[in-house]
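Blackboard transcription, Thursday session:
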Amino acid sequence: MAVSQALVETRALIKTFGPVRAVDGISFTVGRGEVVGFLGPNGAGKSTTMKMIAGFLEPTSGSAYVAGFDSQRDPISARNHLGYLPEGAPAYPDMTVADFLAFVAGMRGLSPAQGQRRLAELVESIDLADVWNRRIEALSKGYKRRVGIAQALVHDPDVLVLDEPTDGLDPNQKHEMRALIRTLAPTKAIIVSTHILEEVEAICTRAIVIARGKMLADGTPADLLAHAPHRDETMPQLVKTTPLEDAFRHITLDQAGV
Amino acid sequence: MRALVLIFRREFAAYFATPLAAVFLAVFVGVSTGMTFFVSNFFDRSQADLSSFFTWQPWLLLVLMPAVGMRLWAEERRLGTIELLMTLPVQPWKIVFSKWLAAFAFAGLALVFTMPLWITVNWLGSPDNGVILASYLGAWLMAGAFLAIASCISALTKNQVLAFIGAVIAGFIFVMAGFDLVLAAVRPWAPDVVVQVIASMSFIGHFQRITDGVFEASALVFFISLIAFALWLNVQILDARKAA
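(Written on the board underneath:)
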């Protein structure tokens, strides 16, 4: 049963790998229409948090809910509402794009006719026609990532968890991916991890900054900017940075006590 | 049910996605026949039966089945596709079972390709075809047991070579369970019951009774329960890795 209005909710999520605490007490909720950007340095715990939401990893303590269903205790219901793009957009290299997506559609419970109809829509919106009958191992990184997105959208889920959806894409493809996420946004709750700061400004309604497993900031991109230290305009800058980068560096380096 | 069929189809097709399947089938048929004719001296025995073929099956399957089963989970882990597969709305046991079933079907196909031998002995004489059929079924079940063990071990690693070696070692223990090599290590300290139980786990023991023409329920029950147990363990391993 749904226990809250939020489409995604995590409560005090903790994950330890041996002596390492990869995720350390992360709680937040995401509602419909929100696009939340997970921001943080590499190894901050973004992917681990996403894996726990998707139910691939079991939290050491705490829980994650998708559409009100506990991803551990009621995994099948939770997964029915979730589209998940794992890190690196894995897919079976020996399958063609068409076969792979038809396989996922079937596994998601779509009838062959429904699957065909849905895939026809996705070919259009994700622009996969050129590679439709090509084997996935022969695809460029950009196309592979798009197949990963298509796979996550097959069942038109309420919740999308996308781990670095624009990683490895060229600027045009990045632009298209962001446009796609924006068109999906109003009807879904979306979590996107990234370490590209301009992405947060481009598509996110909210940003959560994570470093060393802890949540350091949670707010609109504008809120985040307020963290930027005042810059002395008279000092020459060795490396040009944007105000958002300054804010990010300030939050992740200073507050984490580095 | 649909998920079972879809995974089975995908996995079975995956064997044929590379030339590996053809190479494997050629090796299996080649070595099986080679052993039968040249090592066991099929013609010198002047017996129209396939016992010289089946004698080698436990050893051949011991090495070749891990080669078929090693990829089942290790490859998913290496590619990262395990993360897709295990976040689909399907119970893990269904995935484990269908993957094994695809490998089992592939093993069945390999055995079917050796059937010209069966035709040959029928052409040369009049063998007991009932025993040969039972022996084929026994060999297939034994292959299934090797595959279930391989699948289980494959779930522990993302390295297929390690999965292969682990599966051969585990399979070897089962093959040798009835022999002194294994029993001598247990006898000094274990009570007699334990020694008996271990001896009764012998793949060769169960298989030999089938090829001798005694197709009894106990062999059937043994292989099927071993397969069920290994696949159950496979599910547990996947579950434990989630919490690791």
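Lecturer's comment: Residues 2-243 of chain B form one domain.
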